[in-house]
Design a protein that fits this description.
Blueprint: E1 5-10, H1 14-24, E2 32-37, H2 47-54, E3 59-61, E4 73-75, E5 81-85, E6 88-92, H3 104-115, E7 119-123, H4 132-140, E8 144-148, H5 157-165, E9 170-172, H6 174-184, H7 208-214, E10 219-224, E11 231-237, E12 240-245, E13 250-252, H8 253-291, H9 295-319
Parallel strand pairs: 1-2, 1-7, 2-4, 3-4, 7-8, 8-9
Antiparallel strand pairs: 5-6, 10-11, 11-12, 12-13
């Protein structure tokens, strides 16, 4: 195996891990390096500056349409998925995957399709299970899969989930990953050459009609998309469960659970707010009834108030909120 391109994915704890990994590579490392680090879309990324100081390998934010060149680090800018097409970079504002844009899986999928056994996918520190589906594709097309040793990672969930669902080739500390990549690097790397014939489009750039054609090989689930509330379709990628909706939002099982938990929590807070507002009105009505000598009406309003307080306490327990009900 001779590497032409290395794609790296990371999220929480990834900046420090990337610094150490890039610093450990030889300064003449020839294969191109493509990096997705999860950032909020509204943020300003300074990763090229950070990684440029770690090594002599030039680092820059990727630009759509540019040729992938050897001895260069390309970093996905916030708000765009970074894809690979015929030896070029393509940036698209496609649907979020695992609530992220850029996301790790689209890069891994495209790199697998274009470079096959001449690529390596590396997962570093991060939360949940981003990158697992992409690693399945890398393995399928003959590429190398590497994860950071979870005992070293600041946030080991992402690498542990990949290890649990994919037969990864190597589990190594950062220095070990750098040594392996250097050993396998093609000193005459030419990453502008695409070795395989990729499909016309990645899922992240398909329109609704193209995504609809994918539904024929999927199973409709009883779940809805946390992003757009549309129907989710269940997919099985060599035993790895994931979901996609009609407009393209994609979720791994763990990310879907996390997103549903957020939606559920928001709904509970909304219910609590409505009950508290209702209680405020009931207190006013009870007070007016007492002043007007309508004792039975006041008792009715106060009984409804007690019912609401009981429901609020149940909701607070569900949220783990320990403070007392507002009186």
């Amino acid at each position: 195996m001779r590497l032409e391109i290395v794609c790296i994915g990371t999220s929480a704890g990834g900046v420090e891990a990337l610094q150490k990994l890039i610093a450990a590579l030889p300064p003449d490392f020839a294969p191109a390096i493509l990096i997705v680090q999860h950032f909020p879309e509204s943020s300003t990324s300074v990763m090229p500056h950070i990684l440029g100081r770690a090594n002599q390998i030039p680092a820059k934010h990727a630009e759509s349409g540019e040729t992938i060149r050897a001895h260069q680090i390309y970093i996905a800018p916030p708000g765009k998925h970074m894809l690979v097409r015929d030896g070029h970079i393509l940036l698209v504002r496609g649907p979020k995957e695992n609530s992220s844009r850029p996301a790790i899986d689209p890069l891994f999928r495209c790199t697998a399709w274009c470079y096959g056994e001449h690529c390596a996918a590396v997962l570093l520190s991060g939360l949940l299970d981003d990158g697992t589906i992409g690693m399945v594709r890398i393995k399928r097309y003959g590429g190398l899969t590497i994860v950071q040793d979870p005992n070293e990672a600041s946030y080991p969930d992402m690498v542990r989930n990949a290890m649990a669902q994919v037969d990864v080739d190597h589990v190594l500390p950062l220095n070990g990953i750098a040594e392996l990549l250097a050993k396998l690097a093609n000193p005459a790397a030419n990453p502008s050459k695409c070795y395989l014939d990729p499909p016309d489009k990645d899922e992240s750039e398909m329109d609704s009609h193209e995504l609809k054609r994918l539904e024929h090989s999927t199973k409709v689930s009883a779940l809805t998309c946390p992003e757009c509330h549309g129907t989710l379709f269940e997919l099985d990628e060599e035993g790895v469960l994931h979901f996609r909706c009609r407009v393209g939002h994609a979720y791994s099982a763990e990310h879907l659970l996390e997103a549903q938990s957020d939606v559920l929590e928001a709904a509970i807070w909304t219910a609590m707010r409505s009950l508290e507002e209702n209680n405020d009105l009931l207190r006013r009505m009870s007070l007016r009834a007492k002043k007007g000598g309508r004792g039975k009406s006041a008792e009715f309003f106060e009984s409804k108030l007690r019912e609401n307080e009981s429901q609020i306490n149940v909701l607070r327990e569900a949220l783990g909120v320990g403070f007392a009900s507002v009186k």
